[in-house]
Amino acid sequence: MISDETRSRIDAEIGRYPTPRGALLPALHWVQEEHGHVSRESAAELAEIFGLRAAEIMEVVSFYNMFFDEPQPRHHVYVCTNLPCSLRGARTLLRQLEAHLGVHVGEATPDGRLALGHEECLGACAYAPMMRVDHRYHEDLDFEKAKRILDELD
Amino acid sequence: MPRITVDGRIIEVPEGRTILQALDDVGLLMNGVDVPHYCWHPKLSIDGSCRLCQVEVEGMPKLQIACNTPVQDGMAVRTDTERVRKAREGVMELLLVNHPLDCPICDQAGECKLQDYAFEYGVLESRTREPRRALKKNVDLGPTIVFDQERCILCRRCVRFCDEVPRTGELRVFGRGDRSVIDVDPDRPLANDYSMNVADICPVGALTTKDFRFKIRVWFLRDVPGVCTGCAKGCNVYVGVANNKAYRYVPRRNDEVNATWLCDGGRLSYRRIGAERLREPLVRVDGGAAQPTPYAEALEAAAGRLRQLVDAGAGERLVVLASPHATNEDLLALRRFCDALGVTSAGAAVVRGESDDLLIQAEKAPNAEGARLLGFGEPGPVLERIRAGQAAGALILGHDVLHDSRLGGPEALASLDAVVVLDSHQSALQRVAHVTIPVRHAAEKQGTFTNHARRVQRVLPAVEPAWEAWSDGEVLAQLGAALGLAGFDASWDVVAASKALEQVQPAFSGVHLQSVGDEGLALDAEAIRGAAS
Amino acid sequence: MLTVPYITNYLTEHFADDAFGTIEGYERYGGYAGYRQALDTPAEDLIELVKASGLQGRGGAGFSTGMKWSFMPRETDQPKFLVCNADESEPGSFKDRILMERGPHQVIEGILIAALATGSDKTFLYVRGEYAHPADRMEQAVREARERGYLGPNALGKRRSHEIVVTRGAGAYICGEETGLLESLEGKKGQPRKKPPFPAQYGAFGMPTTVNNVETFSHVPHILKHGAEWFRGFGTEKSPGTTIFGVSGQVRRPGLYELPLGTRLDEIVFEHAGGPAEGRKVKGVIPGGMSMPVLPASLLDVPMANEFLRERKTMLGTGGIMVMDDTTCMVRASCVISYFFRDESCGQCTQCREGTGWMHKILERIERGAGEREDLDVLLDVAAKMEGQTICAFADAAAWPIQGMLRHFREEFEEHVRQQKCPFPASFEL
Predict the structure, then answer these.
(1) How far does Cα B462 stand from its chain's mean position?
(2) How does DSSP classify residue B479?
C-alpha cells in the first residue's frame, strides 16, 4: 500500500509536468524509499494513478539500476569498479570487502543488513577508490576506512 | 508528386512518405527494389532499431535507414552499393551471434526472414566462439501463442502491434542491453481477439501459434488465395493446403479490407472446412430417422416432395431461406428457382454476434449483404409463416435459421410436408428435413461473396471434399431440371452465373468472378436496385 | 564533498568560498548581473552573442551552443522547454558535479539567459539518480532563486515566467544522451529516439526543446558579462573558453583543473597533475572520458581541443583524463571498458546490443588466456560495423575505445594470445 503521504507527494509532482507520466520516476523513487522496492502491488497502484498498465510500470523499473522489483536488504553498498577506480585498486578493495562481509558481489548478508555490489562511474574519479552507501558517497577509501563505515551500518 | 531515383531508376512516389513507405506504396518493395528490413511494418509505427534497411542517400555522409528517411523530390537512393552490402552483413552477423540454431525444430523454417536474409545478405560463416544467451524457450504467453525468448531479435513488432492495433498492450520489453527480453505481466497473458497476428509479423520463430505448432513444414503448403468466411468482413487469406487438407489460414494483405490482419476466430475457422461435415445425402422416409442415400435418389426424393407440393396447388406455400454462407452465384440460382416457382416468401437468416471497431463484424457469415442484394433479406416474415402454420414446404440453405428465436426450434418445421435442406455442415435440421443434401464449403469451390462494405471478393477451390458434394448452385440446377422449371437444364456454369448476376442486381454490372481479381471490387452503391433489407 | 579544483579560472575561481554557493554570496561576487543584462537584450541578439563567442557544448558532443539555440522555433504557440543535462555519467568525468555543488547559481543564471534567448517557459534539470547531494544543492538554489524573484511568474521581466524543475534519473548512462534523457524525463525507459525529428521540433513532451550540459550553461553568464571577444581570449580559435578537466587514474594529483581549451595534454598530466607515481612511466592516457580512444605516451603532446585531437583520432569529449601507467595491462583495461558499454547499452539497435556483448565476451576470453589470432580482426570488424549506423552515438562510443586500444597497443593483445595468459601480473586486479 502506498502511503497517503507519498500519494500526495506524487499528486503534487504530477502538476509540474505537461503529462502525468513525467512524475513517474520521482514516484518510483518515493515508493522505493517507503518499501525498499517496487512490488507488484505498488505497480498496480501506480498504474492506476498514472493511467498506465502494471506491466508498463515494471518495464520502466526493469530498465534502471536504482529500481528493484524484489525486497531488498536495509542498505546498498556499491563500490565503483569503472576504469579510473579500478586503476587505483577498487576491485582489490571489493574482494577484501567480500571476504570481510562473507558475501559475494550481488549478494546480501544473511541478516538482511546490506547488499554488496559494484557500480559504474559515480563521478568521483579523483577520489578513488570510493563507494556509494545508499545516498552517500564515501571517497578516498582504503580497506580499513571502508570496513569501519560498513561495520557502523545498522 | 516527388520524383526520386532508386538505383538509377526514376520513380514517382506519393507525398509525405519515407523511402520504405514510398517503395511499398508503389509496389516495388522487395519486388524490384530490395530493402530488407525487420522492425518496419507497413501497418505499424516506425521503430528504426533493427538497422537492416540502411541505404545510401546521395548528399548524406552516413547511411540512412530507409524506414525513417522522408522522401524529397530529387533524392537519389542507392540500395546496391558496397557500403550498403557491408552494413547488411554487419546486422545479419550480429543478429546471429546469439540467435539459437533452432532451424531443425523451428516452425518458422521456410518462411523465416532471418534464414532468408542471412542467406541473401549475410555472411555464410559464423565467427563467434562465445556461448549464446540462454533464455526461456517454449513460453506460454497466452491461449494462442508460444514464445521463444532466445530466438527473438527484438524488432518489437509484436509490442507495437499489441499497443497500436487491438490496443491491449500485453507485451513489453524488460531489462536493458543484451539482457532485454520481451514478456507479459503474469496477470495479463497475451489474450486479445487478434493475438495470433503477432506470429505472422514476427520475422523469426520467436512467436508461433499453438494451433500450427509442429504440424507441417511450410514448404509443403500451397497457398491458395481465399476469403475468411467467419463474418461479413471477408478478410483476405491464404489457405495453406497440403495433401488436400487445409492446415491454416494466414492473412493476405488487402489495404481495402483487412490490411495485413486477421482476427483469431476467423483465422481458426479453417478448422470448419474439415469438421462436422455432412458427407452424404440423407432422406427421411415415413417420418423415420434420416437414412444415408445415394445422391441421385436423394435428389429425386427432394424433387418428388417439391413436385407434390406444386401439383397440389400449394406452390405459394413454399417458403425459402437462403444461406448467407452461399456464394452470389449459388444465390442467383436460388433466386431463379424462387422466381420460376413463384415463391413469394423468401429471406435469409443470419447469425449475429459481437463486433468491434477493427475487423470483426456482427453478421457472422461472408455473404449476408450479397443475399440482401439478390432479394434475400430479413427472415422475420418467413419465420412468421412457418410458426403460423401457413407454410407447406421449406427449402432451406444452411442452418443459420436455427439461431433465430423466431423459428422456435427445428420442431417448428416438423409439420411441413416438404423440408429440403442444402447444407455443408451437420445440424439439428437433419432431424426434421425430409431430404438433406451436402454442399461444398467456400474453400471447395469458385464463387464470389459481397462483404459488409459491398466489396465483391472471390474464393477459389483450395481443397476437394473426399465425398460427393456439389455447390448449392449445382444442386439447384439439377433440382430445377428435375422439376421441369423453365430455364433449368441441370447444367451449371459458375462463370456464366457470375456474369448473369447483373440481370438480377444491376449493381453487379462488370463485377463478376473473372473481373474481381485477387483484391476484389467495390459495388457502386448508386446502382443498387431492389435490394432486400 | 568534493575538494575544489587545483587550478581555477572564471568558472571556479570562487569555489573555495562556501558562500559562493548561496544566493547572497553569488550576488556579492557579481552573480545574476549577466542575467540582468540579458533582460534588456533582444533574444536574437543573445543568440548572436553566444554564436559569436564560439561556445561549444561541454557535454561531450561539442556542438555550437548559439547555433543549437537558434534551432528553436521563434513563433509558436506551443510551450518551449530547456533541459539541463546533469546526468554526468561518462567515466572519468566529475566536473558537472562540482559545478552543481559549489556553483549552483551560476548554472541557474546560465539557464535563465538561455530561456530569454530561446523564449522557453520551463527548464527540466535532470540530475543522475546517484548524485543525491548535487541534486539537493540545485533544489536549494532553485528555492533561493525563486524567493528572490529570479524564478516564477514574472521571472523574465516583462517577457514571460520561468520555472526550473529539478528531477532525478535512476541509474542508466544512456539517459545522458539527449533524446534518451527526454524519454526518461517523460517517465519511460531512457531509449534514445530516432532522428528526425530533432528536439528543437519535437523534444520534451513533444514540445520544442533545447538540451544543454551543466557546464555549457555555466559559461553563459560570463559571456554576457564580459562579451564574446573576452571569451575568445581563452582557448583556441576554433575551441574558445576554458573547461574543467578531470584527471584521474595512475597519477599523483588526481583532481579538477579549470584550464583554457588547447592546453597541452602532457602539460596537464605531468606538470599540473604531477605525472605517474615514483618509478613508473605513463603508458597511455584517455583524454576525454572513457568513450574516447586512448593516446599512447608518445602522442600526449597534443593541445586539448577537438581540432587537434581529431588529427590523433580521438576527441575532447567531457575532458575526463584517465592516466594509465606501465603496470597497467591494456587488455584488462579494455575488459573494464567493454563491460561498461555492454551493461549500459539500451538494447534497441542490433549492432549495439549484440556488438557490445560480443566484444566484451571476446576481450574477457583474451584476458583469461583463451584468445585466438582471429579475435583481434573480429573485434575491429565488429567495431567498424557498429560505427555510425545506429540511432544514437552510443555504439560509436563503444567502438572507439577498442579501436584506439588496438591501434596503439595491439602487441599487448597479441602477447596475450601468444602466451595464452596475461603477461602483466602487476596490473590492477580485474
Answers:
(1) 12
(2) H
Hey, are the CB atoms on A17 and C205 less than 8 Å from each other?
yes
Within a domain: A125: yes
Which chains border C (3 or more CB–CB pairs < 8 Å)?
Answer: A, B
Interchain CB contact of B159 with A (< 8 Å): no
Domain membership of residue A69 (yes or no) is no
CB contact under 8 A, C130 and A132: yes
Domains and CATH numbers, chain B: 3-80 (3.10.20.740), 282-527 (3.40.50.740)
User: What is the model's pTM?
Assistant: 0.96
Query: Is residue A58 domain-shared with residue A84, that is, in the same domain?
Result: no
Alpha helices for B110-213 (secondary structure H): 113-121, 157-164, 197-201
Which domain, by its residues, includes A111?
Answer: 75-151
Average pLDDT on A128-145 reads: 97
Q: Is C389–B95 a contact, with Cβ atoms under 8 angstroms apart? A: no
Establish if C34 touches chain A: CB-CB under 8 angstroms: no
List chain C residues with CB under 8 Å of B176.
172, 189, 343-347
Q: Based on the fold, state whether residues A14 and A45 are members of the same structural domain.
A: yes
Radius of gyration (C-alpha) of chain B in whole angstroms: 27
Assess B70–C contact: CB distance below 8 Å, yes or no: yes
Would you call B526 an interface residue with chain A, using a CB distance cutoff of 8 Å? no
pLDDT in tens, B443-488: 999 999 999 999 999 999 999 999 999 999 999 999 999 999 999 9
Distance between CA atoms of residues B341 and B480, nearest Å:
9
Q: What are the grid coordinates assigned to B425, written together?
A: 455442415
pLDDT tens track for B65-75: 999 999 999 99
Q: Residue C1: its pLDDT value, please? A: 47
Q: How far is CA B425 from CA B362, B376, B413, C222, in A?
A: 21, 21, 19, 86
Instruction: Specify whether A144 is located in the same domain as A85.
Output: yes
Domains and CATH numbers, chain C: 18-232 (3.40.50.11540), 242-325 (3.10.20.600), 330-419 (1.20.1440.230)
SS3 B278: coil
Domain count, chain A: 2
**Residues in chain C, pLDDT under 70:** 1-2, 156-159
Q: Rounded distance, CA A124 to CA A137, Å?
A: 9
The residues, any chain, with a CB within 8 Å of residue B43's CB and separated by 6 or more, are B165, B259, B260, B261
pLDDT in tens, B153-211: 999 999 999 999 999 999 999 999 999 999 999 999 999 999 999 999 999 999 999 99
Report yes or no on A133 lying in a domain.
yes
Q: Name the average pLDDT for chain B.
A: 96
Q: Is the per-residue pLDDT at B358 higher than 70? A: yes
Of all residues in chain B, the percent with pLDDT exceeding 90 is 95
CATH number at residue A87: 3.40.30.10
Q: Is C247 on the interface with A (CB under 8 A)?
A: yes
Chain B residues within an 8 Å CB radius of C356: 177-178
Which residue among B46, B90, B177 places its CB closest to the CB of C351?
B90
Give per-residue pLDDT as tens, B75-120: 999 999 999 999 999 999 999 999 999 999 999 999 999 999 999 9
Backbone angles phi, psi at C244, to 5 degrees: -100, 105
